[in-house]
TrEMBL record, chains A, B:
The keyword DNA-binding does not apply. It is found in: Peroxisome. This is Acyl-coenzyme A oxidase. Belongs to the acyl-CoA oxidase family. It comes from Caenorhabditis briggsae. The active site is at 369 (proton acceptor). It comes from the Eukaryota. The lineage of its organism: Eukaryota, Metazoa, Ecdysozoa, Nematoda, Chromadorea.
Amino acid sequence: MSREERILNNARKVVAMTDNTDQIDGSDFFGEGMYYQALTMGRDLHAMSLHYVMFIPTLQGQTDDEQLDEWLTKAISRAVVGTYAQTELGHGTNLSKLETTATYDSATEEFVLNSPTITAAKWWPGGLGKSSNYAVVVAQLYTKGECKGPHPFIVQLRDDETHMPLKGIRLGDIGPKLGINGNDNGFLLFDKVRIPRRALLMRYAKVKPDGTYVAPAHSKLGYGTMVFVRSIMIKDQSTQLAAAATIATRYASVRRQGEISPGKGEVQIIDYQTQQFRVFPQMARAFAFMAAATEIRDLYMTVTEQLTHGNTELLAELHVLSSGLKSIVSWDTAQGIEQCRLACGGHGYSQASGFPEIYGYAVGGCTYEGENLVMLLQVARFLMRAAEGVRKGSAKLADIGAYIGKTGPKTSRLTTHYHYTDADLVADLEHAARKQVFRAYDRLKKAQEHLSPEDAWNSVSVELAKASRWHVRVYLVKNFLNKVALAPQDLKFVLTDVARLYAYDIITSSIGAFLEDGYMSSNQMNEVKEGIYECLAKIRPNAVALVDSWDYDDKELKSVLGRRDGNVYPALLEWAQNSQLNRSDVLPSHTKYLGPMMKDARSKL
Amino acid sequence: MSREERILNNARKVVAMTDNTDQIDGSDFFGEGMYYQALTMGRDLHAMSLHYVMFIPTLQGQTDDEQLDEWLTKAISRAVVGTYAQTELGHGTNLSKLETTATYDSATEEFVLNSPTITAAKWWPGGLGKSSNYAVVVAQLYTKGECKGPHPFIVQLRDDETHMPLKGIRLGDIGPKLGINGNDNGFLLFDKVRIPRRALLMRYAKVKPDGTYVAPAHSKLGYGTMVFVRSIMIKDQSTQLAAAATIATRYASVRRQGEISPGKGEVQIIDYQTQQFRVFPQMARAFAFMAAATEIRDLYMTVTEQLTHGNTELLAELHVLSSGLKSIVSWDTAQGIEQCRLACGGHGYSQASGFPEIYGYAVGGCTYEGENLVMLLQVARFLMRAAEGVRKGSAKLADIGAYIGKTGPKTSRLTTHYHYTDADLVADLEHAARKQVFRAYDRLKKAQEHLSPEDAWNSVSVELAKASRWHVRVYLVKNFLNKVALAPQDLKFVLTDVARLYAYDIITSSIGAFLEDGYMSSNQMNEVKEGIYECLAKIRPNAVALVDSWDYDDKELKSVLGRRDGNVYPALLEWAQNSQLNRSDVLPSHTKYLGPMMKDARSKL
């Protein structure tokens, strides 16, 4: 389909889908809601993606009661379609430098929205280009000559009846992308557009009719929506990686290539150790990330509940955790999908495999909702404060950072991988994480001796990001092991291999962190490697059952290679025959160009 | 453009391009030839890609004199358009299991081509679906009731005049892919198609009229074409990575985000250490790969010259080297392109950046012309023979594998990175490579004690592949350092930082290999890390000049972000406004679906 056709088809589907949302359990957005959407829409998003994921949650989080009544009613009944316009052409993650202004005019009790430059154009919001008629727009609030920083405003963009852009508003689609081309990500420029005072979402900050600014009670209360979206992302990303691992595992059981024992026929490629080593760690990651997604969803629920009582205790911790997880999970997911795709050889390159779409969709997650590296450096700020606290003896560390203040063993307690307890494994990972946190901290302190705080931070930022990665990975392993420990005995047996593979893979991908200063010996490291090979061999007979446990419907997976019935080759041929190019035997490219070229040459031979 | 439009447009361009090939220096295919094609065709390939890269070289390499006269004349004059059909739906890298048969019938002096199953369908050849009317088809040769293995045949597929498929031939396009959608990769099935005896390309193997089979003198003489294609690939891949590094480096100099020093305004993101750490190593890799591409081209020329005198001395070495390089270069290129893309934040996800196309095109190289992991295991066979020779005292190692037989220092000679000589650096890398080669060898020998040779090989294949990676990387570093040593003094000064960054990055990505058994101390490893940070800082002021030295024309680069004039933002807005979706303000998706949905809801409020 062309982009126009996809946009049209997606609009048809999303209206039908939302016509029927009362059929599903709306309270379970993370579960049924996401599944229903995946089944209906695939991996192309749609005109109302941002409406549900950003517009409505922002209204819920940022409006006062009167605004909530008006706007939430309209949004939920689908009388308006909204999006969330924050990022600008020249400004992404650094919110404080957004250029769009909303200047209060007390004479008319209006704000004037303006885009002073090209780089101030709002850029990227999903559904902004063509579908939405409203948006929450984030702009620098000016009142009484002072800038109060970025604030959210609700703004009508298009006429209710004609759907034409309102006066002073210039907007459109931003063009084709790596993926999600059925969504109309858009741009938006304001030329002195007047909106009422009450367009400012006033739950926390307010502007009175005379222009007096009332600051919010807690500066981080606005984090709620971001945390919500990142929580959903972790679930969504793990689902994409699981889809990729399902396709690769199933196809590796169907595909035969090469003989291991001469004369015994070609073997299933899943029997090759190298194939197992490519695919099974991706499956293990998907399980680990799903375990984290459940945890962070619960934490989000708890924090939301606490916030309604004004309790912000856990908010900072959740914010740090969700930022770090978003970064690690999205990166490992993208890498993992590509590994699965490459493990399927040439057929992985075909759209028939489903991989190009899965990758194009998932890899966006490395960038949107906070660029990964920026996220890691935010986590690093938390880690450096924790390290400082430990060094000064004043640390108050919540659960997830407690290891930073602990004294672990001097050397790894690993003897053989058969006797490697969860506790010893976690102690080893915590050692590596703690070591990197303090390496970064010490380098930072040293750099601060001769550089400004900002230059010092920049000069050690590679080490800081590395510390954040360790921090998150320790969390992921601990959480996965905890979840497996709670599983029924027969499941625990199988899942332990998966969790161990996940952990061992992290260790052997950073051998240096463990050999350093003799914390582990080469022999101990060899034990971990043996552990991997053992896990691969033990997972092999359970591999198909493990991915089947995710219960993907063929309709949801959308992959000829990953078909549940394994009938791959006839299906590939059928799929190919439906190629748009096969509608006729001879194409205009032959009739117009290649045919005359050959005829001319033949006549001269 | 739709696929039909792209196919048509590419056919127009390739005919025009080849009308004018006499304007360029045809003897310099690696240089001018590839550049001319890149300028004309971009990264979409075209109907005649395989004609020039596989069909003609195969004719040159595999025909006897009479066949050469007939077919090369037709191919070069463009009286026919040919492709190379080897891979099948169910069979890729394992050539010996191809299912297509060519059975000799001495009664009519013909071969009968047949595809006995669906998995025997030829699958993937570029230009096979719609454009080509001839192909070199690889099929199992049967004569006098015996199978003689896969052999190449020249086969007419479509009628000269009508371009319709000939009787018994079923073929078509295989559908859309991750990239290169302007090429009609195809499928092909034979139903007992008769071709003359002389369709067998008879330079090496022959079948006499009575069906007697004459075997070739040297079993590996057919490798020439593969080596040629892999040599081109290494050049091509390095060019793609260089394009990505150019875009990312230029954009990082234009983009400003965040303040390092408060109040001094936002800084160019290229000043962030993390940004340098993402992008500069990719630039360094591109230089390293280009240096290797030049070397392997020269080696290919030498071998081709030697082969005409029946000298096959260097052929095996070239085959191993080109297989290994193909694997490492294509993987690091794909990874590097994605790193560059992600380093450009959200705009990297837009097609305007050029990255999606560059990635989609380049990453195919991980799979085609020999799947990367299979290639690495081929290199490992050579390494295990070399290790065996060293252990038995009978090694005859050519230059590239000489380190396997050497005894290096017991510990690294590194003191500070300022005094780290090329020789010491290479010795350290050779140590790591040698260690991994013998680790794999010892594990293999041990496994062979209780397993069949094939199962033993499989059980250590992850370690074998790792040994091959080290082997190739040592070659890449040594070759790069050698080339830099030959550069003029003022260039050497700058390129040394780049080469060192390349080498240090390899070391710090595998810290464990050097810390193991105390070969390096933690302090020495910290010196290497300091070396990286030093290189990044020293490359920073030269970065734009370094990528400019590749002299990409905007027309060739095809990236709004990578524009030579740096005028990125207005160009992005202009590019977006040309989106096909912006041809009208209100789309049918609104008129048909979203509009009525909102109207209905409004009426009920």
